[in-house]
Design brief:
This protein has 95 residues and is an all-alpha fold. It has one domain (2-94). It is built from three helices and no strands. The protein has helices at 2-28, 34-63, 66-94. Helix 2 packs antiparallel against helix 3. The protein is elongated and about 50 Å long.
């Protein structure tokens, strides 16, 4: 159980960090033009959806055990990678 708890804590901490980064990107939107703001708002909306999905997976991980935990972890890792890539891409576009 210790490995599962550590994994869940690691994911929760990273999710919080990415949430703060998305908040920062949303703040930066105030300094861009209207057309670009619409495009970036859509991208940030997608990131928030991925963040929400990752949060749900963390909750599932907390409830799962044994073989079910391993299956949920595989899905969580995929969602995690998508969110990580999305945050990195968004940061690159906002520079």
């Amino acid at each position: 159980m210790e490995i599962q708890d550590a994994y869940k804590q690691k994911m929760a901490a990273q999710l919080n960090e990415w949430g703060a980064q998305i908040d920062l990107l949303e703040a930066k939107m105030e300094n861009i033009g209207a057309d670009m703001r619409i495009k970036r708002a859509e991208e940030l909306h997608e990131l928030r959806a991925k963040q929400h999905a990752a949060s749900e997976k963390i909750n599932e991980l907390g409830k799962a055990s044994g073989e079910a935990w391993e299956q949920v972890k595989v899905t969580a890792d995929k969602i995690w990678d998508d969110l990580k890539t999305g945050v990195a891409d968004a940061h690159a576009k906002f520079k």
